[in-house]
Amino acid sequence: MKRIIVIGGGAAGLGAAYKLKRASQEGHEVEILLVEKSRIGGKVATEMVDHDGEQFTVDGGPDCFLTEKPAVHRIAQSLGIFDDELPTDDSRKKTLILSRGRLYEMPDGIMMFAPTKFVPFATTGLFSWPGKFRMAMDLFIPPKTVAEGTLNDETLEDFVVRRMGRECLDRLAEPLVGGVHASDPTMMSLAATFPRLLEMEQNYGSLMRAFLASRKKVEQMRKKYPPKPGAKPKTFFTTMIGGMQRLTDGMAGAIGAENIKTGVSAEKLERTEDGRWTVTLSDGSVETSDAVIVATETFAAEPLLRGVDNDIANALAGIPTSSSATVSIAFEESEVGIDMNAFGVLCPLVENRALMAATYSSTKWPGRAPKGKVMFRGFVGGPQNQEIMEKSDEELFEIVLSEMRSILGIRADAKPLFKRLFRWHRGMPQYTLGHLDRVAQIEERCEATPGLALAGGSYRGVGVPNCIESGERAATKVLTEWGIELEEDRVEEKRAF
Ligand SMILES: Cc1cc2nc3c(=O)[nH]c(=O)nc-3n(C[C@H](O)[C@H](O)[C@H](O)COP(=O)(O)OP(=O)(O)OC[C@H]3O[C@@H](n4cnc5c(N)ncnc54)[C@H](O)[C@@H]3O)c2cc1C
Known about the structure:
- It is a single chain.
- The chain is an alpha+beta fold.
- It has three domains: 2-41 and 246-319 and 433-496, FAD/NAD(P)-binding domain (3-Layer(bba) Sandwich); 46-92 and 321-429, Protoporphyrinogen oxidase, mitochondrial, domain 2 (Polyamine Oxidase, Chain A, domain 2, Alpha-Beta Complex); 109-224, protoporphyrinogen ix oxidase, domain 3.
- It has helices at residues 11-25, 70-79, 118-123, 129-136, 156-164, 166-178, 190-193, 195-204, 207-224, 245-255, 298-305, 310-317, 333-336, 361-364, 393-408, 435-447, 464-481, 487-496, and strands at residues 2-7, 30-36, 46-51, 54-59, 65-66, 85-87, 95-99, 102-105, 110-111, 114-115, 237-240, 260-262, 266-271, 277-281, 286-289, 291-294, 321-332, 344-346, 355-359, 373-381, 418-429, 452-454.
- It has a seven-stranded mixed β-sheet with strand order 8-7-18-19-20-17-21. Strands 12-2-1-16-22 form a five-stranded parallel β-sheet.
- The longest helix is centred in the middle third of the chain and has 18 residues, at 207-224.
- The structure holds flavin-adenine dinucleotide.
- Flavin-adenine dinucleotide (FAD) binds at residues 7-13, 35-38, 42-44, 61-65, 265-266, 295-297, 300, 324, 326, 424, 427-428, 456-457, 462-464, 467.
- Residues 7-13, 35-38, 42-44, 61-65, 265-266, 295-297, 300, 324, 326, 424, 427-428, 456-457, 462-464, 467 line the site of flavin-adenine dinucleotide.
């Protein structure tokens, strides 16, 4: 029997433990212990709020995942909750951007931050005429020369300003790309976050040409393979009916309560002379195992790894984080006095607002609020506004409410039915320049250390599907060392050929 300890019960730790559980269900002799300091799910946190006998679904961390990434679908299928995946209601899709104090609709045809349709781009008031001309220069600016054998990388700011100008960065790319990652565009590594943009520049010589080609390809595919009648629409983002926590709860259920310890943290990690591991827990107990997967945030992983492998610990210390919070507020629909046909509002940094973005949660996700009620979710914090995190809960509620009133136009006399705040202290890893080198170093050192793997959103993708996959990769590393190959991986391999 091989024993493994997974430290951290977020999406990554659960992804790892669930894969290990599948190994044991296939008859392999694997025993799992998942240790979680606070609550299962980590940042995946849903609260069902009962207001006067009516239910609201409030996601405090992630509220969705990218549909094109397969990990969540695969897990949902194996848990038997695939039918509970919920697409967005695209009949009401509209993204608003705050610009010079006014809300503008995102022009049709904008892909990432590149316009692909002339008329909506030419007629939008979101950009000035000089700004539009500068963006169009992308068609003529030659691609960057990348020396053979060097990593093509630069910050989001450098890339966008070079190709499409400062106004495009400030008004569109920063809130859309930087904001989504809660990252500082002056530090954010493009190779670590959106490598496709760098490839597109090299392959097409222009982002606009690249996105136009990609849009045409999608349109052709849609024509060739129209959705089957009655099939669930495939929208850009997907969530779960009942909130994202359905997924992590489902995974924890499948792993089995007998294999999970919550409310205790791993305090010390040691490798014994015979290559086994001991983990000292906060309740004073000491657990031993043949392998360990550290699936915590980097700032929690670093002290555990210090002493085990200082190179790993140093690389972990080089990954910065930023804190943020989400505030969900519900109202009577009849009182808000705004058009609810929108998915959200983006507030660029140059607008100098406390609110980074707001989601019209009850519009974007049908069923999040009961009939006749609406719910919004505001984001605050991020690398450029860490001071706001010092505010008390009451102050944060007031700030977000007042921003929603002044930016979204919610009537001042609309009374909140309830408010929910979720704070994410150091919750967003920052993929800054050099991130890929740091991750490569961590992976190399783990590769050289039998029985050790790291997983989580701090390495190769922050999205929930990326985190699950990262946990699964960590599990596979250990299983492979034990000479175990899962049936599902054999099928995957066959599919790949
Ligand atoms: C506000 C917000 C909104 C987001 N929105 C989206 C979205 O819409 N879609 C999307 O795909 N992604 C989104 N993300 C990103 C995504 O939620 C995270 O990247 C992902 O959930 C991280 O999973 P993880 O397992 O790596 O880490 P975590 O969820 O942070 O899990 C790590 C766990 O380790 C535990 N731990 C720490 N130290 C110890 C210790 N010593 N012993 C035991 N346990 C320990 C922690 O308590 C925690 O539960 C969002 C993130 C935030 C903060």
